[in-house]
Each structure stands twice: as structure tokens, then as C-alpha cells.
Amino acid sequence: MIRNGPLPSRRSAIIQLTVLAALSGVAPAQALITIAKGSRLDPAKFAGAFVEWGPHGRELMLQAWEKWLNYPLSSVLGVDFYGGSTWQEFSTLGWVPGVWKTLNPARNVVWSVPLTMKGTALHEVAVGQRDAEFEAAARIISTAQPRAIVRIGWEMNVQSMAWFAKDQSNDYIEAFRRVVGIFRRYSTDFKYDWCPGWGVQDSPADRAYPGDDVVDYVGLDVYDFRFEGSPAERWNQFYLRAPFGLHWHKEFSARHGKLMSYPEWGVGNFGDNPFFVQQMYDWFVENESNIAYAAYFNVDGAWPTKLDAGRVPESRRIFRELFGR
């Protein structure tokens, strides 16, 4: 999913650390979550989030998220999007990783990095015509978050993406591999996430898999956006057993020897659906040892996913109960 709303401006990034006190008034969750076998699930790796920019940057909003879930500072992953929809934005928003670092150098971030821009063919990236832009991005991200997870060209099976791979899967693969090669020159601690959108979408995701040597995590973005049937029927038909759904994700990741990840997930068009939140949590618990991380998309984008906008009170309640400490 593409983030919603305007890109942050330099003016909005003025650092005022005194606002931390204003973000600390949320009571901790009370429930302790246990998995079926009786051992305590550590939910921190499943409680990452993409949050709004806020007045001073996503880091401070993520700190409020941690307080809401009763986590220590820096215990969850942040998610952000590097660049924008044009090469100009890609080149001028390099200061954003620095805002994260200034506010909290201990935070690690999942950076979603576009593989190209509309109007630039993937082939141009694949043959090196945009190396300078990716060199700059790798240098900036490595300076701010040298252990970042880099999610390159996500949702390549979705037609709206500039790097839609349906008729150019070879160029997508070569471009992905080239960008990983550039990033590796700047940090040996980066991890690389290849992340389709869930379900059939607009093309078969596996045709654009770039290779085990350039992928650390196999991701999947999952949103509750269908209306057909009951919540249970939709869960089984559209998310669990659908082509390129959760069962496929588990099998494909295991076959390639990779951990799974869920860089984006959330409620959506269906509205308030605590059943979906519960099922996603149960899936995380069932597959805990094979999942690297998960992050909730707490910003309204293509679907209304935000938990604290007043539209999904039951989903918000059960999320805090399940994923809090």
C-alpha cells in the first residue's frame, strides 16, 4: 500500500523533544497473552507499525504507540517509505531517515524503497541508469539505520505500482538484484524483504522472485478489504487458502529457506472486524518461529486501516489486548 497524505516538509521536522511528555498519558494494556502450548509469546516483533508523521516525525508517534501497548522504548520496528512518487522526491527526502535517527538512534526501521518511478521503465534501473539515486539512498539509510530492513519494490503484483512486474518480470528481477548490490556496499547488516500483496492480485507474484541470494525475508501485505460472506468465510477464502494467500506464503518461504514477514497488515473496507485481528494474531502465534516481524498499518491509505480514528473500536480493543503487554 502507498502511504496516504502529503509528504513531510522540512519545516514539519523541527525537532522538539519536549513533546515526549505530552505523548505519555496512555495506560498500559492489562492482558498477558499466552500461546496454546503454555509458553509466553513475545508479541514485540509483531507490534511494529507504520504511523502518521505527526507534528515532529514518525518516531515520536511510534513512541506513543509503544506507550499504548505498554512496551519499552525502541522495542518495536518502525516502518516508513523512502522517497516519493517522483525522482525529485526520491532525491530530496533523504533527510527523513536522519529525523528518525535524531529522535531515537536505537530505533530500527523497515524502509520501503521504490524500485522505479512512473515514466521510468524497470529496464533503465536494471541496466544501471538510476544507480546514482539508489547509491544516495543506500548511503543515507546506512548512516541513519545501518541494520535496516530494506523492502524493495513491494507489491510488484499490483497493477498500480510503477514497478508492476506482470509483463516485465525479468527486468523487475534484474533491477531488484542491482539495487540490493548497491545497498550491500553501504552496510553488511541490511536485511532485504521481497514483499508481494496478498492473494491473486493482478499477476502471479512468484514469477518476480529475484533469488534466494538477494532475499532475507519473504513478506506479504494483508488487508481485510472484501465484503463477500461472513468474517470466517472471508478469512478462509480470501486470506488463508486463496492463491498467494497465507498458506502459499508459508509454503513458499519454507521452500526457499526464508523467514516470513508482514510489513503491512490491517483492517480495511469491511470495517470493524475483531475476528480478522484475532485470526492474524493466531496466525502469528502458530508460525512465530518462522516470522521475522509484523507491522500494523495505522494510517489510512488505500483502505481505512487506522485503529484510533474512532471507526473500529472493537478491532482497536482486541488489538491492544492481544498485542500489548
Describe this structure in words.
With 325 residues, the chain is α/β, with parallel strands linked by helices. It has one domain: TIM Barrel, CATH 3.20.20.80. It is built from 10 helices and 9 strands. Strands 1, 2, 3, 4, 5, 6, 7, 8 and 9 form a 9-stranded parallel beta sheet that branches. The radius of gyration is 19 Å and the shape is globular.
Binned, the helix content reads 25-40%
- Taken from the alpha-carbon principal axes, the silhouette is globular
Number of helices: 10
CATH superfamily: Glycosidases
CATH class, named Alpha Beta
What class, by secondary structure content? alpha/beta
Regions with little confidence, pLDDT below 50 for 5+ residues: 4-40
And the CATH topology?
TIM Barrel
**Strand content range:** 5-15%
Question: Which descriptors would you attach to this protein?
Answer:
325 residues, 9 strands, alpha/beta, globular, TIM Barrel, nine-stranded parallel beta sheet
Short summary:
The protein contains 10 helices and 9 strands. It has helices at residues 58-69, 87-92, 96-103, 122-126, 131-144, 169-184, 231-240, 246-255, 274-286, 313-323; strands at 48-50, 78-81, 109-113, 149-152, 191-194, 217-219, 222-223, 259-266, 291-297.
Describe the protein's topology:
Layout: E1 48-50, H1 58-69, E2 78-81, H2 87-92, H3 96-103, E3 109-113, H4 122-126, H5 131-144, E4 149-152, H6 169-184, E5 191-194, E6 217-219, E7 222-223, H7 231-240, H8 246-255, E8 259-266, H9 274-286, E9 291-297, H10 313-323
Parallel strand pairs: 1-9, 2-3, 3-4, 4-5, 5-6, 6-8, 7-8, 8-9
Helix pairs in contact: 3-5, 5-6, 9-10
